[in-house]
Write a structure and sequence with these properties.
285 residues, alpha+beta, Fumarylacetoacetate hydrolase, domain 2, 2 domains, five-stranded mixed sheet, 7 helices, binds manganese (II) ion
Length: 285
């Protein structure tokens, strides 16, 4: 199943190049009052409303995907856990380029671990990236985003995939500089998730997905998730050894080589096999 959030907070079921409005299925989610749960209610209750989604899709008229605005498919992630330098060739390029490593030793992920991005940094592809600090280098990073299905507290890698709801394309947009990663990567709009959320049953081998990112038509990043230094199950085990992962939490698995600057006016075209493709525009903040 491919679910998107489109136009004015509609929930959509994506089939081919069409979307079916299944917003009515959200009536099956529990009504919440303060304090709100620290998870994404849609992901947490996806199994409960799957029949409602199918029924609503059966009643809906198809809408051309090309004509809708796509928002982040995960509306309320509790946290975004991200892996730094998790591809060997990106580690090599980061160590070779002073503008990336910024006079700081770039350590291997096994040593530096993971970092958090603010949930408030999340946008969808149609919202675009508004560049702040235009005087500083701001880079694109395409990453496979893993969406957590259910509470995961100190999960062994052998059971990690039981906790995966699905996948989407993620951008970890980054201001280069000497500050902590979470500061430089948590600017509003610097986490792009899209174009939709693909449930795990549709991705037979997440360790063999091609990623590609083009800037203004020119390929900048091209890699395959088989080259992750720490693979997905180990990342989930690692992350859940520190934090309890909750439904809708997002794990950004790290970017491959080829990172480079973006500027207002650029168009980023990203694709990941088995998931889809999205265009994201860059503008001034
Ligand atoms: Mn990254």
């Amino acid at each position: 199943m491919r679910l998107c959030r489109f136009s004015h907070d509609r929930l959509g079921l994506v089939r081919g190049d069409e979307v079916f409005d299944v917003t009515a299925a959200l009536d099956g989610l529990p009504a919440h009052r303060y304090p709100l749960p620290r998870h994404d209610p849609l992901v947490a209750h996806l199994a409960d409303i799957a029949a409602g989604i199918a029924a609503a899709a059966g009643r809906a008229k198809p809408i051309a995907l090309a004509g809708v605005d796509l928002l982040s498919p995960i509306a309320n992630p509790g946290k975004i856990v991200a892996a730094p330098v998790n591809y060997k060739k990106h580690l090599e390029e980061a160590r070779a380029d002073a503008a990336i490593h910024h006079q700081k030793q770039v350590e291997e992920i096994q040593k530096i671990g993971l970092f958090l991005k603010a949930p408030s940094s999340v946008v969808g592809p149609s919202e675009g990236i508004a560049v702040r600090h235009a005087d500083r280098r701001t880079d694109h990073e395409i990453e496979l985003a893993v969406v957590i299905a259910k509470r995961a507290d100190r999960v062994p890698k052998e059971r990690a995939f039981d906790h995966v709801a699905g996948y989407c394309i993620g951008f970890d947009i980054t201001v280069r500089g000497p500050e902590e990663r979470s500061l430089r990567k948590s600017i509003d709009g610097y986490t792009v998730l899209g174009p939709w959320f693909v449930t795990a049953d549709e991705v037979s081998d997440p360790a063999a997905l091609d990623l590609e990112l083009k800037v203004n038509g020119e390929t900048r990043q091209r890699a395959n998730t088989r080259d992750l230094i720490i693979p997905i199950p180990e990342l989930i085990a690692f992350a859940s050894s520190f934090y309890t992962l909750m439904p809708g939490d997002v794990l950004l698995t790290g970017t491959p080589e080829g990172v480079g600057p973006i500027a207002p006016g650029d168009a980023l075209d990203a694709s990941i096999s088995n998931i889809g493709a999205m265009r994201v525009r860059v503008r001034s903040a």
